[in-house]
Predict the 3D structure of the following.
Amino acid sequence: MTKDHEEGDQPRIVVIGGGTGLSVMLRGLKEKPMDITAIVTVADDGGSSGILRSELEMVPPGDIRNVLTALADVEPLLGKMLEYRFQKGQGLAGHSLGNLILAAMQDITGDFVTGVRELSRVFAVRGRVLPAANHAIVLKAEMMDGSIVVGESKIPKAGKVIKRVFIEPADVSPLPEAVEALRRADAILVGPGSLYTSILPNLLVPEITRTIVESKALKMFICNVMTQPGETDGYAVSDHLRAVRDHVGQDLFDYVIVNNGEIPPQIQNKYAEKGAKVVHLDLDEVTKKGYKVIADQLVLFRTYLRHDADKLSQHIYQLVENWMIKKR
């Protein structure tokens, strides 16, 4: 154990990503006795986040808002209020109230990160929420046909196959607190979330990936349940891992956690209408690369397919607990 980690302390978990999948998982993880830090993408340029990013020159707040709401210990009504999206009103329509509150907190405190920290205190957030960098980055994609698509929100809509994504500025400095959290982590989780537009933008910040590589923490990849049209069409689990390796130059993970439960045909058909299919677990291909695989029935279906936050967080917690026992 590290000298600054006393026996009995909660294990320190750093979760990296963005989007709905990350928020769902965090709702389960916050119920476990773990010290959570979420490092969240700052490449979003669509919708309310894109407008605020452009007009106020701020970090896009949408993914940060989702994570804050997921980790907050608040009444359900307050959670709904943060997520509330105005349906009409000139200049207001399309904005979520939580995004506007984050914009206000930036002005009040003079700094976006400080604003997030203060709002976290008000909402009794269980853990810390940090943007990957203190300013927005531009995400670009080179497609297989050689064309370049600019903007996180435009990449999945281009209707082309992605060869690689990259960020500008390429040498963006991460938030120092994010790097420190990674250095002190007992476990680092990447995903779930949109592979090219939520996960990889974080890993393309050079010092973030360098710190993950150097870390002796347990490293896990949480794979998406379904492919995403315009991003991961036809991808198996090994394709997700290969894309990460191709972008960062090496394998990052010890464990891969995947769903192997049956998804009813009628639900698969509903997703197929939008071009999404179940991510195939090609177990032999994954294990021969040296990854250990945790596979289980990890999905729930309400209106949409979502990870079963309780089950997923239990697997993560068990892996971390076992890892901590070995370290002792």
